Amino acid sequence: MKLLRSLGFAILGIALFDTWLYKDAYNIHDYLSSLNNAPAIFFGATEQVSYVPLYAAVIVATRLTLFALFTAILIKRFSRR
C-alpha cells in the first residue's frame, strides 16, 4: 500500500512540476492535462525530449527506486513459501 501511495505522489509531483515549468500554472485545464500525461512521462512512454536533463534524471531515479522496492516486496513475499 505504501508503494502505491509513493507511486501516486511521484505521478502527482511530475504533473505539478510539468505544469509549473512548461504550462500555465493558473489554468486548471493544464493541471489536468499534465496529470493525464504524467504516467506516460513516469514510465518513459512519451517522446517528449524537451525536459531538463536533471528533471529526466530524477524521474528515472524515482522509477528505478520504486521498481527496486517492488522487487524487494515480491522476493520477501515469495521467500516465505
TrEMBL record:
The keyword Transmembrane applies. It comes from the Bacteria. The chain crosses the membrane at residues 54-75. Keywords: Membrane, Transmembrane, Transmembrane helix. This is DUF4306 domain-containing protein. It comes from Massilia cavernae.
